[in-house]
Design a protein that fits this description.
With 311 residues, the chain is of the alpha/beta class. It is 42% helix and 22% strand. It is built from eleven helices and eleven strands. The radius of gyration is 30 Å and the shape is elongated. 37% of the residues are buried.
Amino acid sequence: MHFQQLAYFVAVAEARHFTRAAEEVHVSQPSLSQQIKALENELGAELFSRARGNIALTDAGEALLPLARRILADADTARHEVQELVQLRRGRIRLGATPSVCTGLLPEVLRAFHGTHPGIQLLIEEGGSHDLVRQLARGALDLALLVLPLPAASPALTTVELLHEDLVVVSSASRPAPGRRGSVHVADLENEPLVMFRHGYDLRELTVAACRAEGFEPSFTVEGGEMDAVLGFVRAGLGIAVVPHMVAVRAGQGLRTTPLASPGLRRTIALAHRSDVEPPRAARELQRMLLGAGPPVASSATAGGPGPGGG
């Protein structure tokens, strides 16, 4: 008795028609009939009554049908479990993330994941939240770390909040500290030269929107850089920048970090995937590690609900 024979038997039992059943299992009708006949010979009983072209199950067929379905279901489960195991030994994960998350959160998590699953290839797509949402929608990413809130026209995504984090001001350690009394008000940025990210960065949109809400347009000394470039320009004394706290604490020497005065600015990072497609097994394992890493990384951030997006 072979799995294929049982699958053909179940197809005929459900369709009650040999030709339609053959079409459903993508074999010729004669081949299907031969396999059913071979199964009947092996079992020593007819499974179908074929009187006057009407197909009906015999008593033997009625007895076999639930058992055949269970055997095929168990085989599918076994195949799925083995494939799940194999996926954690080899395969790939396509992960999207905003630039500041790539700089701050991902290195340590990916190091831990790679140490546990060295056969999994990690493909990282760096970009703004809007671009990453589009990548998720067209199936180019398995998971993405996005800044909430999502664009209004976002596709159906499942999101889980990962961390809430304050934004801070970084400046050159060789220059006087910006602001007053150890903190910087957004209004203080009117008199400060800013080093600004390129268009498409969530942090750029947030900073400009916060300045406009205070009634002024920010002044840029340098603009258009990626995260590492912006930090380098600030370190060189070309201006100040608004960055996530977890980026500032990893920025190294030559930079001073100053908090934004209350109410400040905050961002919420969420882990997202398409609602209609379950991520691969390896991606779900990385998801579990990311969710486990969220609270320790965010320990220095202020708790609370979703706020404006960041880079």
